[in-house]
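Friendly challenge for the regulars: who can give me the structure tokens for this chain first? No prize, just bragging rights.
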Amino acid sequence: MLDFLYDLGCTLSLFVLVVFMEGVIATRKNAKWTGLILPAVLLIIAVFVGAYMHDLGAFLFLLIPVVLCAATYAFSRHQVKKGMAAPTIREQMED
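First reply, four minutes later:
Bragging rights claimed.
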């Protein structure tokens, strides 16, 4: 039981880290296409793992971070379009 909780905690913290990284990357004003790299790589990994293991459950489980990253990307790009994204360090230093 303790091993399961440890593995679950590691998995959830990895999901949070990946989504946080995607949010940081996608919020940059000049990162329109670079923000799509992480969800694309995660999708490729999910497809390869699902095909190799022949396990639909593993494939669907690996789609969770893909969906979370895509949603974070969409939300972050919407914030950038509206001008509500946080300014970069360079912009902050100019003020």
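The chain has a mean pLDDT of 80. The longest helix spans residues 56-82. Your move, everyone else.
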